[in-house]
């Protein structure tokens, strides 16, 4: 997996230094302390999620070549995710061609989350080739 194909995710404390217009800044600071920004590799959009979590978790699942993002994948994924206490902020699934499909999710995260168990559980889905995770921390 090439780094330039990954969705970029950052978490930042909501502050005046983020240079939001005053109206947006005031709305955000009254709702949450942090914001998670998700920037897909195609750079066509940026999604912002207000949160009080100081950390986030980015997860990307690459599927094996012969599998697609079909109902069986999503049903199994939902069952596996239900084994963990996670607040989902963002999910997407994309198939670029017959040979490349992946799913991504961004969640609120805390230090006592069983990350290795989470990765192992997602890796146990038949169609999964690889699970990549990245912990997002505010600076």
Helix-strand blueprint:
Blueprint: E1 8-13, H1 22-31, E2 34-39, E3 47-51, E4 55-63, H2 71-81, E5 88-97, E6 100-109, H3 115-123, E7 128-137
Antiparallel strand pairs: 1-2, 2-3, 4-6, 4-7, 5-6
Name its key features.
globular, 139 residues, 22% helix, 3-stranded antiparallel β-sheet, alpha+beta, 7 strands, 4-stranded antiparallel β-sheet, Alpha-Beta Plaits, single chain, 3 helices
Question: Could you give a quick summary of the protein structure above?
Answer:
The chain contains three helices and seven strands. By secondary structure, it is an alpha+beta fold. The longest helix has 11 residues, at 71-81.
- Give the CA-CA distance, first to last residue: 26 Å
Counting DSSP E segments of at least 2 residues, the number of strands comes to: 7
CATH class annotation: Alpha Beta
Query: What is the global morphology?
Result: globular
Sketch the topology as an H/E string, one letter per element: EHEEEHEEHE
Main β sheet profile: 4 strands, antiparallel
User: Architecture, CATH level 2?
Assistant: 2-Layer Sandwich
Mean pLDDT: 86
Proportion in helices: 10-25%
Physical arrangement of strands within the biggest beta sheet: 5-6-4-7
Strand content: 35-45%
Helical segment count = 3
Over all CA atoms, what is the radius of gyration?
16 Å
Describe this structure in words.
The chain is α+β, with helices and mostly antiparallel strands and 139 residues long. The chain has a single domain (3-137), classed as Alpha-Beta Plaits, CATH 3.30.70. It contains three helices and seven strands. The strands form two sheets. It has a four-stranded antiparallel β-sheet with strand order 5-6-4-7, covered by helices on one side. Strands 1-2-3 form a three-stranded antiparallel β-sheet, with helices on one face. The longest helix has 11 residues, at 71-81. The protein is globular, with a radius of gyration of 16 Å. The mean pLDDT is 86.
